[in-house]
Amino acid sequence: MYSLYLTVVKASFGRICKEEIQGIVSVMGAMIFAKKPLSDDVLVMLPGVRIGDSDIMRLFRKGLTSVIDSGNILHFHHKSFEDYLLSTSFMQEFPELSAVQDRGYNERQLAVLCLKALVSSELHFNIIKNVDIQATVKSTVPLISYSSQFWADHLVHIPSDKPSDRKLMEAVEFIMYEKLLFWIEIMSLMGKAYETSSILKKALSWKVCLQVISL
Fold first, then answer.
1. How far apart are CA 36 and CA 108, in angstroms?
2. Range(s) of the domain holding residue 183
């Protein structure tokens, strides 16, 4: 099976330019480490996916059409392809794409994506004004709904040893001081209010870990 996947990836990305590598890695990494499949509208916000006129999503979908679904929400047909991407064989055959296997790197990408969404004006008071609340949340604020549920899940997997993590902590503090009620509101609208306590505990554990390491 791996030999078949080797042929698929080589045919798809064997000749990609250096500038396209980060985009391909970002999409693959998100498909593996995201808590649930993400839409193209969300994936294009990842680093390297938008490069001038280059359409990384189109390149990705065209190249891997045999192993991914064709719908708007990207996911692999079979878990075995994901296993291949995380295998030693993949790392040896495609060293330029090996960052796909770096969990800390990909969790950081997703955490940044989530935190940017939550500190933005997209998260605000009375975010939903619609009778069909559940449908509206899913269709109009997919990144906000994903970020609200999973931002701390990505944070806790980030090794807290880089200066850039200070900026992440500042973003977390901004959410807690300026956006907390808005965040609780959308969690309630999604029927996920019961999860807020555990999410805050995860975020606090990461922050404490970061502070201890920096001492």
1. 16
2. 103-214
> What integer is the mean pLDDT of 165-186?
89
pLDDT score recorded for residue 88 = 95
Do 12 and 77 lie in one domain? The reply is: yes
What does the alpha-carbon distance between residue 68 and residue 51 come to, in Å, rounded to a whole number? 23
**How confident is the prediction for the chain on average, in pLDDT?**
85
Query: Hey, what are 128's tokens?
Result: 């939903």
131 and 81 co-located in one domain? no
Res 128: pLDDT: 65
Which of the listed residues 60, 75, 101 is the one where a domain comes to its end?
101
Q: Within this chain, do residues 209 and 122 fall inside the same structural domain, yes or no?
A: yes
**Mean pLDDT for the stretch of residues 121-143:** 66
Of residues 170 and 125, which shows the higher confidence score? 170
* pLDDT for res 131: 45
Q: What secondary structure does DSSP assign to 52-118, as a single string? A: TTEEHHHHHHHHTTTTB-SSSB--BS-HHHHHHHTSHHHHHH-GGGGGGG-HHHHHHHHHHHHHHHH
Q: Closest by alpha carbon to 114, among 48, 67, 183?
A: 183
Where does a domain end: 52, 80, 101?
101
Q: What angle do CA 147, 152, 157 make, to 5 degrees?
A: 120
At 193 the pLDDT is: 93
